[in-house]
Amino acid sequence: MKKVRPHSRIARVIRALPARAVPEQVRRYARAVQMLEESIEFHRGRESVLFKPEDTTPPENEQINTHAVWAVELYTPLHAARMIDGLRALGVDTDQTGFGPPTESVRRGRSYPLGGSWVNLGLFVPHGSSAFFGRIPADLPSGVTAAVAYMWTITSSLSALVVQFVLTDELEASVDRTARRNDFEAKGELLRGSGVTVQPPENVKQAAIDEARKKLRRLPADWICKHAPGAFAARGLDAMPTAELVTAELGLPFAEETRRIEYMRFLGLGWDPLAWQSDELKGWRLAFDRGDRFMVVAGRRGDVRAAGQLEHRGSDESWAMAMVANDYLQKDLVIWAASQHLVQCQERLSEIRDAGKGLVSGWFPTVRLKRIGEEFLRDSLDARTAAAELKRFSASDRDFRREAAEWKGVGQFGDRDLLGSFRDAIRANAGALLSSEERLRDSLLVETTMVSTIANLRVQRWLLIVTVLAAIAASVSLYLTVSSG
Question: Where are the domains of the chain?
């Protein structure tokens, strides 16, 4: 039985009424609803011109698994206190190694002028799990086997928390299950101005796969925002850099041979000429989404096994892959997060600059200037400190690359160097951020002078009016007194 939507019933009633009895805007709405229904009906049960259902579905002998996901949080001087409080709340304020509590190690790391240290915060397991030595019970999300957390001190004022969630078998296959569904239908919606937009089934499926991947990446990000929020959490959950560790049984992720394999493209593992490979983390390739919002580290399971790095890591292959990748990738994730922080600081300063436009001619300029000034003082100090220290951090190539995995380009881009690209980006963004902060400071100083001048003129104008009124009142009073006398 065909499902009739409420807006469809309304549109039918409108179309049945005489044209003169219905306003033109209402009739346009009815026509838009009819157009939307016809477009959805056109796509329903119709084979896609571009893709067949089997093209977007992994073969039976293929298996896509997301073994682990990462999130990285950054702590500036503005967020240092919340960082320590968050670590204590997580239960890492006890000495389990004989070298002192991890929180004290973090404090000592931030006291060094150049930073450069890291601390293993421990292995977090769900409540009720076996409490072996070094394991910390925590309220982990459902479907997470364990969480591994490290704190990196990049500079004396900048620390990075790297959290890896290792997923259960059920959760790591969730994206694969979504990719095997072929029951997606066309979806449409009304737009303002009597327009419509319709997504064919393959687009709806792509959106569902993207949402399933995003849901996994959000697990560690949401956990950090809840327990130890920092600079990225202050800008929103989606601002936090995240990564996923994925393997395929048949397809080679990001390789040119997958260019025409549609199910790999739908899963975000299709050919990417800008992918990276490493001689240290063998069998894996690394790629970023087009907006640099997240990182994907993926490999073919046979190649990963053949690399020989999973030996002596336990009988659970998925756990072994996650631990090996975590050992090599942490410093790369920290450097990438630092680069993203500079970009987001630049965006924040741009927002403050735009908020200051038209300040002189607007209403209540003094109140607005006070609010903008407070935001500038709060965010500008953090941005300037981060830019200056990261610029110094990237000055030494040896220190910059220490403990980080080297990644080179693939194919014709084999001469490219990922860490070199990060270093160049940090230096360029830090310099641009310092210049922007200085220009914005000068601009706000000019705005402050102008607002103060205008405020003084307004006060003087009101004083003049009050003086004139007082003189008039005195004259009238004198006249009345003389007249009555």
Answer: 6-43, 64-190+199-334, 342-467
